[in-house]
Structure formats: C-alpha cells, structure tokens
Fold this sequence. Notes:
alpha/beta; Rossmann fold; 2 domains; five-stranded parallel sheet; two-stranded antiparallel ribbon
Amino acid sequence: MAKAVLWDIGNVIVRWNPRTLFSKIFPDPAECDRFLSSVCTMDWHLAHDRGVSFEDNRKGLIARFPEHEAAIRAWGDRWWEMFSGAIPQTEAAIEALHEAGVPQYGLSNINQDTVAGTVAMSPAFRRLKGIVVSGEEGVIKPDPAIFHLAAERFGHAPADILFVDDSEKNIAAARALGFDVHHFTDPAALRPALEARGLL
C-alpha cells in the first residue's frame, strides 16, 4: 500500500510543450511540425535532461542547420515560453496530501539549470520534501537507476511509493521495479486515484 507520492514535474505539475513557443516562431503548423520533428527533436533535447547545457547542446545542431540558428537558440533563450502554468488539479492534490501528512517527493527529467525557475511556478513545490533531478545525476527516466536512486534517497521501498508520471515508458519502468503507479493522462482522474489508495 502506497505511503508516499513521487511526482513527475513536466505535464503533471506544470504544463510544458515546445509548441507553446515554436508556434510563435513558425506560425504555419506544418513548418512547426517539421522543425520539431527534424531539428529540435525530443531525442536531441534529452541531452539537456542528462545535464548538458543549452549552449553546449546547440553547437552541433547549429552547425548542421545554420539556417535555423535563431530558432535553435530560442530553445534555451526562450525556454520559459514553453510553459503554460501549473495544473490546478495537481496543485490541489499536493495540498490535500500535505494536509493528510503524506510524504511527497519529485523525480524529473530536467536540466539542473532550470529547476529553480520551474519550482517557482507553483507554491505546491514547497510541499515536496526533495526532488531527484536527472541533470544533476546524469541519468534519466526510464533508466531503472534513477528510480532506485529516488527510493533510496527518500527512504521508502518502491512498493510504498505511488509514482505519478505522464509518460507511458516511465510508468512501465517504475511498475516493473515494484512501484505503485498512476499514468497521468487526465487531471480529473488524479484525485480518485489517490482516494482509491487511501492516500486521501
């Protein structure tokens, strides 16, 4: 039975989508699609989550796509324009869990240089007793190592932790390691999932 909650951050606590920024740079949806699928791809972005700086990660990409230099630089220079605020249902759940005395933590694929700005987006982050940051550890979800690290650091067995993430791959990895899991796809389904486990 879960006794603690381990939260993903992006698209669970705060909304993040590169299109929020790049639809301004490329107003034509097809052009925006091409850029995000062939230039600034999610595979390329994973290096940031492993701890590589925006400056270092974009050098090779600019060399390959010099015609897109301004847009590539925007990925880092206008990073915060990819966010569109906190998710109210998650904020409310975090506050309710805090009132119920449930320990809460974070586990995020996130660059270490963006953590402070991200947690400033919602007072709910103050309720988390700690966050494992992939960029600081040099390992990203769904690698089992980062799940083991979180369980060890926060002092709970995987079976005692409810892990909440929007990524199906991350959910599958955590489930295989013995975590209780909730695949976050609908904010309205979050509280019932917590109640079903007796956490609220």
